[in-house]
């Protein structure tokens, strides 16, 4: 069941956060600050998260996030994404499911991939030798003539 929580069956709407997943994510989110100005009520974090996932999944521009979906405006979701990023939420969201899967012995490393975009290389590889020239003599010049006097065409 735990693997299904994170990997799960192919959902037709992968931006919808399940109750089980939300129960893990919600404690990781920072408490919202007090509103400085009166206005619209704050969009709930779960709806904003769904809006963020919708934009990231579909590739739609933030400003075109459909209001009819109930995720709030694209700018609201974008601001929430930036605030959560600054608070380190995404790193914690990445670590918690991994810890749960590891504790349940359901983490399978046989399909893991690591490259330099995720893990910094400890040392550089061997330095390449400079490429050697294949010619033993200088190449002929294409801009000057070895003849004493260059010929000029008489056609004008």
From TrEMBL:
> Compositional bias of type Low complexity: which residue ranges?
138-150
Organism name: Streptomyces erythrogriseus
- Per the UniProt record, one Pfam family is DUF4096
- Lineage summary: Bacteria, Bacillati, Actinomycetota, Actinomycetes, Kitasatosporales
Sequence ranges assigned to domain Insertion element IS402-like in this UniProt record: 17-94
Disordered as annotated region, ranges = 121-156
Protein name, as recorded: Insertion element IS402-like domain-containing protein
